[in-house]
Design a protein that fits this description.
5-stranded antiparallel sheet, 270 residues, 6-stranded mixed sheet, 11 strands, Rossmann fold, globular
Length: 270
């Protein structure tokens, strides 16, 4: 695990065509096993990047590294105008990662997990308002009003006072999406958002994500849903054994993949 890093606002002014999030040569290993081997990606405002790959390819680890739930061993990350560089050489002028800086970077990213991760002791509306009120210190009345709008967006207004245990998996995931949006992130990260759902519930979650894409929400989505990636994403990245095997627009690489591994993956998923 990387012990040192540098952090700071970049001096360059970025335009609308520049990436809102950029990761360069991200490396991560556990107990000597390399899970990510120099993965790079970019997303501009409004992009939907689908991250495909078999189980163990590094998709979830990549999203956790982008959100600093895991600290990369090497590489760099930029969110909007702020950059962070990972490494282990203290002589290069790198300083230890601080909790305040981690929080600041994470606030630019909303995270939606495979298993929802809602707070079981809180109602739906409390789950959505917790971070804006407690972390961002915003006005409670305003946060509740915005939460109501988000719940309407994901079709969960009538469940505002329910606890997670009383919701289906699809309903919990829609609340999780509303909660991630409540901090007004620059980028929404979704880690296999439908993998824990019964087949009949997958469609309702994918429809919410489709609507967000139409509204211009910038998203990175780790998924096995090939048709979703084909129809909704602006770019597809295929990870294999911790590295980017192939990437490009969905029309090209999903219809005519260059790598044999991606061909095998697509055949298996169909």
């Amino acid at each position: 695990m990387a012990d040192f890093f540098t952090y700071g606002k970049t001096t360059q002014d970025y335009g609308e065509t520049d990436p809102i999030i950029s990761a360069i040569k991200i490396h991560k290993q556990y107990d000597g096993l390399a899970v990510l081997k120099g993965v790079s990606l970019n997303a501009k405002r409004g992009d939907v990047v689908a991250i495909l790959g078999s189980s163990g390819s590094g998709k979830s680890t990549l999203l956790k590294c982008l959100n600093l739930l895991e600290v990369p061993d090497a590489g760099s990350l930029r969110i909007d105008k702020e950059s962070i560089y990972f490494g282990s050489n203290e002589k290069e002028g790198l300083s230890k990662l601080s909790k305040k800086q981690i929080i600041r970077m994470r606030l630019g990213l909303g995270m939606v997990f495979q298993h929802f991760n809602l707070w079981s002791h809180m109602t739906v509306i409390e789950n959505v308002t917790e971070a804006p009120i407690r972390v961002l210190k915003r006005n409670k009345i305003e946060c509740i009003a915005e939460a109501e709008e988000l719940l309407a967006k994901v079709g969960m207004t009538d469940k505002r006072n329910y606890y997670p245990i009383h919701l289906s998996g699809g309903q919990q995931q829609r609340v999780a999406i509303a909660r991630a949006l409540a901090i007004k992130p620059k980028v929404l990260l979704l880690d296999e958002p439908t993998s824990s759902l019964d087949p009949e519930l997958v469609g309702e979650v994918l429809e919410v994500i489709r609507c967000l894409a139409k509204e211009g929400t910038t998203m990175l989505v780790a998924t096995h849903e090939i048709q979703f990636a084909r129809n909704v994403s602006s770019n597809v990245i295929f990870l294999n054994d911790g590295a980017v095997e192939e990437e490009g627009c969905p029309r090209d690489i999903l219809s005519n993949p260059a790598s044999e591994r991606l061909k095998q993956f697509l055949s298996a998923e169909h």
